[in-house]
Design goal:
Blueprint (H helix, E strand, L loop, with lengths): L2 H16 L12 H14 L3 H13 L3 H13 L7 H13 L3 H13 L7 H13 L3 H13 L7 H13 L3 H13 L7 H12 L4 H13 L7 H12 L4 H13 L7 H12 L4 H13 L7 H13 L3 H13 L7 H12 L4 H13 L7 H13 L3 H9 L3
Helix pairs in contact: 1-2, 2-3, 3-4, 4-5, 5-6, 6-7, 7-8, 8-9, 9-10, 10-11, 11-12, 12-13, 13-14, 14-15, 15-16, 16-17, 16-18, 17-18, 18-19, 19-20, 20-21, 21-22
Length: 399
């Protein structure tokens, strides 16, 4: 279940707990109303076990809201023993009576396959029901399903229709998704101005990835005046929320002193936070700091650890780092063959460092069959991507 729905449950309980207008149980009430009134009274007394008991009675008497709340209580173990099976049963009852929040919750359960077995057909069914009732969470999820073609035929047009409906209601994830599409030009004509508007709207709600992407826009000057200082502000806001990409990006600014005071120590702290979350770019950057002892105690063992983690995820910088360790025997035995393998992996991703280092091995016949022509080819590719070392090699050999 997503955070929005969990907060909705808490809100329901909070409102009931502070309500001063709870009706007394009277003879003219039907059973469901009477049980609900008793449940609300128990909540005011912070007797959640009794509250669940009465909500369960009201739910079994057919009250849709009580069914929804009972389902939430069973899901989270509020006032009763946690039971996903009972939670799904009560949510099913509420959904069948048209409670949109129950429908989107069930849709989410069947979409992600937890706690029930994944069933995209059921997920689509319940999300469509909730979306038709104007539920923004359901509209946002449907937007993603159509965008990626998950359980439905892929349709960017339909995806954006749902995303816009959710965004109009202020759904932060939908706002971010639309911002990302306009930022990258995926499925729409690239428009940094529109991307900025969507990102800002999502960021106002504290959406971490939107904050991180705003930082990137300011770092690169995409649609906004280039500003490392503004980039650092947005990265920091996202990093404080635990966003790994923002932590790695802010670490990079500290490493090179762009928009912030240069500090290898601060860079290492931020890279570590992101690396611990599995961010491959941060792992590669942290490996490099350990290789040279910048901001951390020099450790080839640590460098190998983080370069390896990064390389295993296919990160070109991590692959290049592994090549460096094997080429120069840093923490490992020298192996030009292994160095060539890692450089080749990096070069295959058009990494200029990987291309340049692989060119060096071909030029000198280290770990590969010597070939000046192949070396020059790799140097030219690297130079076109901005490698000054490769450009120098081309000048030396008259190419």
């Amino acid at each position: 279940m997503n955070k929005t729905l969990k907060l909705w449950i808490c809100l329901v309980v909070s409102v009931l707990a502070v309500s001063l207008a709870v009706p007394a149980v009277s003879e003219d009430m039907d059973d469901a109303q009477a049980w609900t009134a008793l449940a609300e009274e128990a909540i005011r007394k912070e007797d959640y076990t009794s509250a669940f008991h009465y909500y369960e009675l009201a739910a079994n008497a057919g009250d849709a809201q009580a069914q929804f709340i009972a389902g939430g209580c069973c899901y989270y173990g509020m006032g009763t023993e946690q039971s996903y099976e009972k939670a799904v049963e009560y949510l099913q009852m509420a959904a069948d009576q048209g409670i949109a929040e129950a429908q989107v919750w069930l849709g989410s359960i069947y979409y992600y396959g937890f706690p029930a077995e994944q069933d995209l057909e059921k997920a689509l069914k319940y999300l469509l029901q909730a979306a038709d009732r104007g539920n923004a969470d359901a509209q946002q999820m449907l937007g993603e399903m159509y965008f990626y073609g998950i359980g439905v035929e892929k349709s960017v047009e339909t995806s954006m229709e749902y995303a816009r409906k959710a965004a109009e209601q202020g759904n932060a994830q939908a706002l971010y998704n639309l911002g990302w599409q306009y930022d990258t030009g995926v499925g729409v004509e690239q428009d940094y101005g529109t991307a900025l508007e969507y990102y800002l709207a999502a960021a106002e709600q504290g959406h971490g990835r939107a904050l991180a992407n705003l930082g990137l826009m300011y770092e690169l000057g995409n649609g906004v005046p280039q500003s490392y200082e503004k980039a650092a502000e947005y990265y920091r806001s996202a990093a404080d929320q635990g966003d790994a990409i923002a932590q790695a990006s802010l670490g990079m600014l500290y490493e090179f002193g762009d928009g912030v005071p240069q500090s290898y120590e601060k860079a290492a702290e931020l890279y570590q936070l992101a690396a611990d979350q599995g961010d491959a770019a941060a792992q590669a950057s942290l490996g490099l700091l350990y290789e040279f002892g910048d901001g951390v105690e020099l450790s080839y063992e640590k460098a190998l650890e983080y370069f390896s983690l990064s390389a295993d995820q296919g990160n070109s910088a991590g692959q290049w780092g592994m090549g460096q360790l094997y080429q120069f025997g840093l923490g490992v035995e020298v192996s030009y063959e292994k160095a060539a393998e890692y450089y080749q992996l990096s070069a295959d991703q058009n990494d200029p460092d990987g291309l340049e280092c692989l060119g060096y091995l071909y030029l000198n016949g280290l770990g590969v069959e010597q070939s000046t022509d192949r070396a020059m080819e790799l140097y030219r590719l690297a130079a076109e991507l901005g490698s000054e070392e490769a450009q120098q090699q081309l000048e030396i050999y008259g190419n």
